[in-house]
Design goal:
mainly alpha; disordered N terminus; disordered C terminus
């Protein structure tokens, strides 16, 4: 099972230490950090507590500082308490420090040991429509959920939030509802959902035909204000496409996922009338100022999602019949990133190539020996390296589909 796009990767900066301060030995630094603990306690004076949190935030801005804090369980627990505390507590700086700490996978275990309920507490704040620092809470969750153990803890917290997937439903509603929180945009809920969708239980919820979750996510592939949100949604959709049993539903009229995956890859090309008729209505006669998705990682995930949809005979036929080749042909000519161009070429080869031999109708179920898989991965890496050193090649023309009715 492929993994979702990496989590938030969010970083937060804060007021640093004085540049003239001498570098202390490790033992001395640990002692200095330990002296901060009383100032982080609930009864500490507000101004001193705020200054202590700023000091911790500055430490989280460097690798050595984060490593130093990793061994301070009581301080980490105090930081979590402050991140969830109401005003006048310095909750925002505390949450931003947690964002930086959670960006390092090696610190996930110390964080969860210091506060096992961390995912549940952050989830409550992230989904609170009145909490002003909900975006920071979501960014911590996005970083944490990239790793299996914290992701499992977050799924457990969502399950405990209500029966029948109501916790995930709240997350999806917050992500898809404009103005859900007037003081926090909640873009980082996108990567959170993407990371969760690596888990089978989350995909089962997302792909439940009775919930209409995927349909609510589809418009966000074109969300103009945040590549973080777009990338999270596209990563979620890509992970859902691994479930080949749902391909007919995803490609059918109840979801019609393909135009939403192709539209961000389309430019302002002027196709012939014959070609235009083959495209879905939403991809016909696009305006001359139509822009492609600017983020290369998102473009690659869109291509990967379509590639997954071509794993079955039905999927390949549907993708061919809806004119995907035309969009991909123009994308290939335009694409500046070598790895994205390679992914595009591979998808085009699937669309214009011969059908696999009998017994390989579903490519996701083909068992590849481990040694062969390793060899293919090496060849794939070599191909990408070679591709980056030469000019793009011309693509073969699309073969005429036999008996394929235009859509």
């Amino acid at each position: 099972m492929g993994e979702a796009r990496g989590g938030a990767g969010a970083g937060a900066s804060g007021g640093g230490l004085s540049p003239s301060a001498p570098r202390m030995p490790e033992a001395g630094a640990e002692a200095e950090v330990a002296t901060l603990l009383p100032f982080l306690a609930p009864g500490a004076r507000a101004d001193l507590r705020a200054e202590a949190v700023r000091h911790v935030l500055a430490l989280t801005g460097s690798g050595p500082g984060r490593a130093l804090l990793a061994g301070q369980a009581l301080l980490l627990r105090a930081l979590v308490e402050l991140a969830a505390a109401p005003a006048p507590a310095p909750a925002r700086d505390a949450a931003r420090a947690l964002v930086n700490l959670a960006a390092e996978p090696g610190l996930h275990e110390p964080l969860l040991e210091a506060e096992p309920a961390l995912p549940a507490r952050l989830l409550g704040r992230a989904l609170d429509p009145e909490w002003p620092w909900a975006e920071e809470a979501a960014a911590v969750l996005a970083n944490l959920s990239r790793e299996p153990a914290p992701c499992a803890a977050l799924m457990a917290a969502l399950a405990a939030a209500g029966p029948g997937g109501s916790g995930l439903e709240r997350l999806v509603r917050a992500l898809c509802t404009p103005g859900y929180n007037a003081r926090a945009p909640l873009h980082y809920l996108g990567p959170v959902l993407s990371n969760l969708s690596q888990r089978r239980a989350a995909r089962a919820f997302l792909l439940d035909p009775d919930r209409c979750v995927v349909q609510r996510l589809l418009p966000l592939t074109q969300f103009p204000d945040s590549s973080v949100r777009r990338g999270g949604v596209v990563g979620t959709l890509r992970n859902c496409c691994f479930e080949h049993r749902h391909h007919e539903w995803l490609l059918g009229p109840k979801v019609d996922i393909l135009p939403f995956l192709l539209l961000p890859l389309a430019g302002p090309e002027d196709f012939s009338e014959e070609e235009m008729e083959r495209l879905p209505v939403d991809l016909q006669y696009l305006p001359p100022d139509k822009q492609r998705e600017p983020d290369a990682d998102i473009r690659k995930m869109l291509i990967e999602a379509i590639m997954l949809l071509t794993a079955t005979v039905f999927g390949r036929q549907q993708v061919r019949n809806q004119g995907a080749y035309l969009i991909l042909r123009e994308l290939h000519s335009w694409e500046p990133e070598p790895d994205v161009q390679v992914a595009c070429e591979k998808l085009i080869q699937v669309l214009i190539g011969d059908e696999p031999e009998q017994g390989m109708d579903n490519l996701l179920e083909v068992q590849v020996p481990e040694d062969v898989e390793r060899q293919l991965q090496r060849l794939d890496q070599q191909e990408q390296e070679q591709h980056s050193r030469k000019h793009p090649e011309e693509l073969a023309p699309e073969p005429q589909a036999q008996g394929a009715a235009p859509t």
